[in-house]
Amino acid sequence: MGRMGYGIDQAVVDRIASEVLDAHALGVELALVVGGGNIFRGFAAATSGMDRAAADYMGMLATAMNSLALQEAIERHGGKTRVMSAIRMSEIAEPYIRRRAMRHLEKGRIVIFAAGTGNPYFSTDTAASLRSMEIGAEAILKGTKVDGVYDKDPKIHSDAVKFSHLSYLDVLNQDLKVMDSTAISLCRDNKLPIVVFDFTQPGNILRVICGEKIGTTVGE
Known about the structure:
The protein has a four-stranded parallel beta sheet with strand order 1-4-2-3, with helices on both faces. The chain has a four-stranded mixed beta sheet with strand order 5-9-10-8. 40% of the residues lie in helices and 16% in strands. It has eight helices and ten strands. Helix 5 runs parallel beside helix 7 (181-189). By secondary structure, it is an alpha/beta fold. It is globular and about 50 Å long. The chain has helices spanning 10-24, 42-47, 52-76, 98-106, 124-135, 168-174, 181-189, 204-209; strands at residues 31-33, 81-85, 94-95, 110-114, 140-144, 149-150, 162-163, 165-167, 194-198, 216-219. The protein has two domains: 1-137, Carbamate kinase (3-Layer(aba) Sandwich), CATH 3.40.1160; 138-220, Acetylglutamate kinase-like (Carbamate kinase, 3-Layer(aba) Sandwich). The termini are far apart.
């Protein structure tokens, strides 16, 4: 949403698409999981009185809108993509099928996973962890608006300390809000590293994929 406060900022989408393609040009297989908080936050709506399952399904539909926006931008910049949705919507996306997703990656396509896991009560973070396990990903790169994980909110506390590395147990025990506990536990059980970095900074997507020590790494 950029600085709009709501919706889709096309300039931001175009920048992300361009950086994803720069990384893909290195020969990296990329799968993207997109949230929907710029349009609708299911958990927030549920805390305001809406039925949680209904709110979560609405949030999944928001992720599909973002996925289509990102697909259009990547393909306009010359990339090849497939959107795969955990909720069937055959007119706009393929249904998620694990082996088909892996085949798309092998053929050099960028796969965008929409609609989370397809189930309420599971976050986009959990969807990212689950899909990563299923396709045999080497790492999860979690792009946020902060340049890593801190012991407290750096926007509120000037003495907040940034971590360069954390264990899965550190994140769970200190409740550091890197990802929800289900997602962290999945990564821990399968020894999948997570790199949390600021993707609003131009060039950071390529930097983190090239192995530069930016952000915070969560691992063993």
